[in-house]
Amino acid sequence: MSDRDDASLADFLQQYPKLMVLSGAGCSTASGLGDYRDKAGQWKRKQPITGQVFINNEAARKRYWARSSVGWPSFSRARPGTSHTALATLEQQGHIDLLVTQNVDQLHQRAGHQNIIDLHGVLASVSCIDCRFCMERDSFQVELLQHNEWLNHLTAAHAPDGDADLELDSLAAMQVPACPQCGGLLKPDVVFFGESVPKDTVQQAMRSLADADALLVAGSSLMVYSGFRFCREAQRLGRPIAIVNDGLTRADDLATLKIAGDCGERLTALAASAIERNYHQA
Predict the structure, then answer these.
(1) Which of 11, 39, 72 is nearest to 269 (CA)?
(2) Which residues does the annotation mark as catalytic?
(3) Domain residues for 224?
């Protein structure tokens, strides 16, 4: 890892001390959670289920819950990594007004980060699409396994966002728990592929970006428009963009500074430099 790159990132923070941060899967891979894309920004696996398919296709929905029943325990046990800890430190040092994360794992919160927008929702709860009744994903897991005891015996390699690489021939007998309040369809509280982020969520993030000195992108290829749009807006506003990502991104040509390498190591070095600078200024 180049000390020159770490120094460049530290200089960027010194020049633009008030950041909005956009984080992606690269912040969570060190916590054992997978990502969807390789260093070239290409899909590493099949694209995940869309919201439309989840709602309208019963067979696909059963397949989703069967796979999720295997992947959820490991996903829920994940703990914050160095990227999450470093960003929380930068917030504590007064350098991050808002963190917008594309991840659904809530590891930033577990690391102590306070001001966060979960752009794509969180996987830790499910809600009824009809009456909006909400329950914890852990509670739903208990009911799912009680209704389908055979799911307890399945094993598979874990995939991103609590999924698992599991193929089943027939799920006709599978029972998916319905909403206990109205009998409606329960759906994870995430923005599936093909769905839109709520407008008020985007507007809140855009206001923070307008108030920031610069945008820092951490661990995202930005191939999904819901994240890339903030780079386009930063360019429109004349806000510098620093990208820390181990691979290509969709916004490389928009970046003021692009730093490769391990996201956790880079951000840890940045947080350490901020602490040292603030100490000497005190």
Answers:
(1) 11
(2) 120
(3) 1-33+80-120+194-282
